[in-house]
Fold this sequence. Notes:
- The structure holds two protein chains of two kinds.
- Chain A has strands at about 5, 10, 20-25, 35-40, 45-50, 55-60, 65-70, 75-80, 90-100, 110, 115-120.
- By secondary structure, chain A is mostly beta strands.
- The termini of chain A are far apart.
- Helix content of chain B is about 0%, strand content about 45%.
- In chain B, the strands form two sheets. In chain B, strands 1, 3, 4, 7, 8 and 9 form a six-stranded mixed beta sheet that branches.
- The model of chain B has no long low-confidence stretch (mean pLDDT about 95).
- Chain B is globular, with a radius of gyration of 13 Å.
- In chain B, a hairpin with a 2-residue loop joins strand 5 and strand 6.
- The interface of A and B includes residues 37, 44, 103 and 113 of A.
Amino acid sequence: EVQLVESGGGLVQPGGSLRLSCAASGFTFSRSDMHWVRQATGKGLEWVSAIGAGGDTYYEGSVKGRFTISRENAKNSLFLQMNSLRAGDTAVYYCARELPDTVSHGWYFDLWGRGTLVTVSS
Amino acid sequence: QSALTQPASVSGSPGQSITISCTGTSSDVGGYNYVSWYQQHPGKAPKLMIYDVTSRPSGVSDRFSGSKFGNTASLTISGLQAEDEAEYYCNSHTSGGTVFGGGTKLIVL
C-alpha cells in the first residue's frame, strides 16, 4: 500500500527538541522529493521544509536555523529535527510526497500522511 | 512570506456552481504558473485537486477546474454535491518556497 506514516510527536517545553519521523512505503522513496507541512489546530496549512531526492534542502523562514530535514533512503524514512521549539510551532505535522518532476516542476503534494501532533507548552 | 488571501467561506446549493478566489502578489500567484488547490475534510489530510493552475490529478472529478488572471487564482466547482463540503486551500510557488492561502470553508446548503 502506498502510504506515509508519521511518528515522534508529543508534548515538549519551550526551548526543547523533538525529532519527527515519516515512514514511506509502496513507492520508490529514494526518487521522491519530500516535504513537511504543518497545521495549527483550527488554522491553515503552512509549508515547513523540503528535501530533494538528491539531498538539497529548503526551509520556511521562521524555522530556518532551528529545524533540520533529512532522509535515510535505505530505510525509506524522512526526518525533521526540531530544536529551540516555540509555542508557535504547536501543530499537526504532515509528511508529504511531491508530485514527480515528470508531471510538473511545481511543488505539489500528491500523497500525505495522517500527521503527528506537536505541542509546545510549559 | 504572507499567506495568500482567500474568502473565509462560500456557500452554494446542490447542483450549483461556486468559485473560490485566491489573491496573492507578483511574487507568488502572479509570478508563476505553479498554483494548486487542496481539499481537506475535517480530521483528514489534504487532497490535491488542481495543480499547474488548471491540471487535475488522476481520479479528481472534472467538476473541479482552476484558472488564473494576474495575481488572482480561482477554483470553480460545478454541479455542487454534498461531499464537496470541506475546507479548500490554494497554494503558490514563491521565491522562498511555497505558500498557502488561509483556507475557505465551502458550505453546501
